[in-house]
Amino acid sequence: MTTRSRNYPNLYKDSVALMTVSAKIMAVPGIAAASVVMGSATNVANLAEAGLGNFEVRPNDLIVAVSGVEEACDAAIELADGLLSAKVRTVPQKDSDARSPITSIQMAVAQDPSNNFALISVPGDYAAAEAMKALRLGMNVMIFSDNVTSESELLLKKYADGHDLMVMGPDCGTAIVNGVPLGFANVVKRGPIGVVGASGTGTQEVTCRIHQLGSGVSQALGTGGHDLSGHIGGISMLHGLHALESDTNTHVIVLISKPPAPEIAERVLSAAAACAKPVVVIFLGADPAGINRKGVYAAGYLAQAADMAVALSIGSKPSAEPIAVSAEVRSRLTSLAQAMPPSQRYVRGIYSGGTFCFEAQLVHAASDIDGFSNTPTAGNRMLANIWKSQENTIIDMGDDEFTQGRPHPMIDPTLRNARIRDDAADPATAVVLFDVVLGYGSSNNPVEELIPLINTANADAKSKGRAIAFVAHVCGTDLDPQDRGKVIADLETAGVLVATSNAEAATWSSRIVAERKRAKS
Amino acid sequence: MKTLFEQELKVVNVGLQSFAANIDAAGGNATHLSWSPPAGADAALGWTVANMIGEPMIEEANRTAYERYLAAQPRLTDFLLARDAIPALTERRVLHAGPPIAWEQMCGPQKGAICGAILYEGWTDTIEAAEKLAASGKVLMEPCHTYGAVGPMAGVISPSMPVWVVENAAAGNRAFCNVNEGLGKVLRFGANSGDVIDRLKWLGTEFFTTMQIAVRGLADANLKPLMGQALHMGDELHNRNSAASGLLFKRLTLALMDSKVDGAAAKRALTFVARNDHFFLNLSMAACKSMSDAAHGVAGSSMVTAMSRNGVNFGIRLSGTGDRWFEAPVNPVNGLYFPGYTVNDAAADLGDSAITETNGLGGFAMAASPAIVQFVGGIPADATENSRRMLSITLGSNPAFTLPALDFGGTPAGIDARLVVDSGILPIINTGIAHKKAGVGQIGAGITAAPMECFSKAIAALAAALHGASPPARAAS
After folding, report:
1. Could you give phi then psi for residue B251, rounded to 5 degrees?
2. How confident is residue A14, by pLDDT bands cut at 50, 70 and 90?
3. Over chain A, what is the mean pLDDT?
4. Residue B327: pLDDT above 50?
């Protein structure tokens, strides 16, 4: 055991600095004891007691003393010397470099009181609390999260309504506020049409169509899928309707939902009738007769709601005619159907958008094509196994069972593509019907992997004497981050029939299936 | 909603980061939160605290409490024996740091200090007898805080010990703290050997009578301006009191020069003060206690009015929940140790001195005292950032205590328990580290944080109290 020391006359360092050096040289392997102290009487006594040596008391001298293995002592003394004479460390110049992260909504508002909107996508167990805080801080809220209890949703919406705020959601996927796309939303021109939608993809379809017709959207507000239930009572849809009614930039309003609970539908329709602006209503699958009233116009399908709203915005008479199929398309569909062998009979609708799936089932049912789904409607039945199509099958692959532990198919279409491949390989499949959803939130390359897969499927079918009809609709605009024109061109090059709306795609599909049904009978 | 249509949309994004990126890419304006589940991921408590954010009754109560805190004017008005200052101390009763704790559960230093106090009072003649007496239950032990007092580390105050009397001139409430004995083997670290008791006896006799004359003769008894000045001189008034001790020394010296005190006695007393850079700590604590107590007792207030440790548990009190303590096991101290000691020698966090952080000093005023961050290997920018971060959990900043490094902004003050639970940001506390064996003394210093559980419990209790006091405006699930 060796002891070593070094004396620094008239070098003052505060005790904290010295303790830092002590700690570092203590850590040198082979050091038994180390002390870096000013030479006060107490410290000198402590050094002696610790067996580090006897020193003269000189309060303004700095003493480095160590004991341990010889080489370690030398190394420690050198290390201490280096630390004691160290240059000033450069510190970050900008405050923001060292600034702590913002961890709460209240912190964000304290930092910038002009924050006026909260977009919440945390797990459902916590989403309601975040939303309540935002509301209490005077912010409007969009809750993308699902799995929020109905009780919480009601509390939030009542609080919001009492404070002239809106809760979009829970389970609200899409909104465009002041031109800013939120969640899964498309880039659309601004214009005279305001939208309140209980369905995310429904709102995407309507807003994109409005854009494609050359008009634009003032605001597209979401309500979440449970808003029009009897328990919630349409609080958000009514709030959104009134907000758009008093918005000077909105001239026509579109309301989008699956059919609400009857008493809620009536409440919403009364409010729509009382609204000073024309209101187009698309309650998917509901009887238009129950909707139409003064100033309220029932649309038959999503895209039609956009057509009617644009017409109303330019003072034209809106038309609610059923979807028309041109003679040219009709003959193409017929020749496709007639080229199929008897085994090919069924539609396989593989959707990423829940409302598109719903609408497609309605369209097929209207042509007396019944079948199966994981989200059955219009008389369809539940699939025995959601992973396997049977007869006519139209499924929503964005539904919970498919997204447990996986990204939504709009974000990552891998699983959806695999299902398209499987169904295309099924000799019973006549039509593969699908959607491609563009916009913020969706995959940047939605058909990159799908195109080669379709080419392979077509080649495979041909070799087996079959011909599959691929029918698709691309929901998006030319302003979206994805290149809509290229997506459509790629699909068409691969032989896909690309319709201009979901309802049109479904109509084409139903024509082929009806044709195959006739061929059989 | 409609007013939003006329404003620029400014989004706070809570959850999926890609949503914020998309908003920015689309030309919008989004702030993404570094979010984690609040309230320690207790969703029910998270909902409770969410319903307390912006609640008018709580906001109003906090305004009242905070104004009382700001208005407080602590003055060093007297130096008394504890039994004369605190009527309850006439019996065989000793006060200790932290929330209530039974003798059996106490840590080594606190037991040692209580035995020392028993010896000092002459209730027994030997340490062994003192331990027996303490264990017998015949000496009442209660928190200092119960009687408006505070004490650093073990925080032991017995009837014959002198205490500083600090009076809040604005409201008339008084606070007390014992005398800082210096470093090394001292009672507050649990030492109770003969020299420790002898020093206490001198402090209780010659020093007491001398200092009482000095205190009563002070030309300026105001502590707030002195503390404000010390902050500008590098103190944070918890772990660093060098400047404040010097400023106090000047005042005491002048007072004694004007008195008829025996010169030798005055010299001994002043020498004792001069040799202890921590001398002012106990006055800082008493001043803080008087300011916090002014804010205490406002129904509905979520402002924290006490934070303290008894060597086992950390306890806090809220203004709006009366004398209840909300406790959780103390957090470990992240610190540096004197040569020869390691974390294995350390007692758990101990003492009432976190009353300074409760008042916006200590860890909250770290920007005033950059040297302190070296205790955890930090740099001055960290000190500034620590003070800034504390602003996120406080009701405001105290204009009497300004920080040059924060452009002379006030220290963050008035901890709002709601904000702690919601943001997950814990109050930073600067602290000394005692050896776990009684009598060894201080072995290091460092930084620790108040445990979240204290704040969670306090918020749950405040919510219950609010619902009990008046019918809830909204049902909470």
Report:
1. -65, -45
2. low
3. 93
4. yes
- B97-126 residues touching A, CB cutoff 8 A: none
- Token pair in block for residue B141: 């032990």
- Partner-chain residue, chosen from A110, A140, A440, that has the shortest CB–CB distance to B392: A110
- Condensed to tens digits (0 to 9), the pLDDT of residues B99-118 reads 999 999 999 999 999 999 99
Residue B396: closest C-alpha in chain A: A110
Provide the 3-class DSSP secondary structure of residue A25: helix
Sequence length of chain B is: 477
How many whole angstroms separate alpha carbon A416 and alpha carbon B59? 51
Fold topology of A2-84: Gyrase A; domain 2 (3.30.1360)
CB-CB under 8 Å, B53 with A132: yes
Confidence bin at A99 (pLDDT 50/70/90): low
A104 in B contact zone (CB under 8 Å)? yes
Is residue A13 classed as helix, strand or coil in its secondary structure? Answer: coil
Owner of token pair 């303004």:
A60
B371 shares contact with chain A (CB less than 8 Å): yes
A 139-178 near B (Cβ less than 8 A): 139-140, 144-145, 149, 151-152, 155, 159, 164-166, 177-178
A33 with B339: Cβ contact below 8 A: yes
* Structure tokens, A265: 């539908």
**What is the distance in angstroms between the Cα of B177 and the nearest Cα belonging to chain A?**
26
Spatial distance between the Cα atoms of B180 and B351, rounded to a whole number of angstroms: 13
In a domain, residue B49? The reply is no
Spatial distance between the Cα atoms of B58 and B463, rounded to a whole number of angstroms: 10
Chain A stretch 47-76, residues whose beta carbon is closer than 8 A to a beta carbon of chain B: 50
Which pair of structure tokens corresponds to residue A48?
């002696």
Question: CA-to-CA distance for B99 and B96, rounded, in angstroms?
Answer: 9
Q: What gap in Å lies between CA A174 and CA A440, rounded to an integer?
A: 10
Q: Could you tell me if residue B42 is inside a domain?
A: no
Q: Do A369 and A330 form a contact (C-beta atoms < 8 A)?
A: no
Using CB atoms, which residue from A46, A114, A130 is nearest to B10? A114
Checking ipTM against 0.90, whether it exceeds it is: no
Nearest CA in chain A to B240: A16
Query: Which residue has 């207030």 as its token pair?
Result: B301
On chain B, the residues whose CB falls within 8 A of the CB of A93 are: none
Measured torsion, CA atoms of residues A272, A275, A280, A281, in degrees rounded to the nearest 10: -10
**Among residues A383, A384, A361, A365, which one has the least CA distance to residue A374?**
A383
Check whether B472 has a pLDDT greater than 50: no
Q: How far apart are CA B224 and CA B98, in angstroms?
A: 25
**Domain A178-321 annotated CATH 3.40.710.10:** no
Which of B31, B340, B474 is closest, CB to CB, to A50?
A: B340
For B339, how many CA atoms within 13 A lie in the half-sphere containing its CB? 26
Residue A328, phi then psi, degrees to nearest 5: -65, -45
Q: Are residues B233 and B89 in the same domain?
A: yes
Q: Are B43 and B23 in contact (CB under 8 A)?
A: no
Residue (of A470, A476, A475, A477) closest to A508 by Cα position: A470
**Level-2 CATH architecture, domain A327-520:** 3-Layer(aba) Sandwich (3.40)
- Look up residue A91 and give its two tokens: 């510190």
A 194-223: CB under 8 A from B? 218-219, 221
**At B233, phi and psi to the nearest 5?**
-110, 15
Tens-digit pLDDT profile for residues B41-91:
899 999 999 999 999 999 999 999 999 999 999 999 999 999 999 999 988
Q: How many Å apart are CA A501 and CA A507, to the nearest integer?
A: 10
Domain count, chain B: 3
The C-alpha atoms of residue A120 and residue B251 are separated, in whole angstroms, by 58
Distance CA A376, CA A370 (A): 10
β-bridge mates for residue A254, sequence order? A195, A280
d(CA A322, CA A301): 9
